Amino acid sequence: MEQRFCYKVHTTPEGITIFHQGMEQFFGWEQVKQYGTLAVVLSENDEDKWAIGLGKRHQVESAGKEQKKSKIVLYKAELEQAEEIHLQYQGEAY
Q1: Percentages helix, strand, coil for the chain, rounded to the nearest 5?
Q2: pTM for the predicted model, two decimal places
């Protein structure tokens, strides 16, 4: 049986923290690279660690509003196919 872990992403004016498996990784904004409007990559020592992006079924209405069925997805940077970790909004970051 596959073991599932709890993942949490927290943003502050200083950067982004990923909480997983009882550990945390902090990425200052200088370690965050934006690729277009769909994803950001979090790097440490020039090595990609995580990506945060829009889910495959993301749609934007003509007025620019996101539909509620859209998902924000966290991916661990891996050589193999990365698992989609769907995030749920839990309130303002700060």
Answers
A1: 5, 50, 50
A2: 0.73
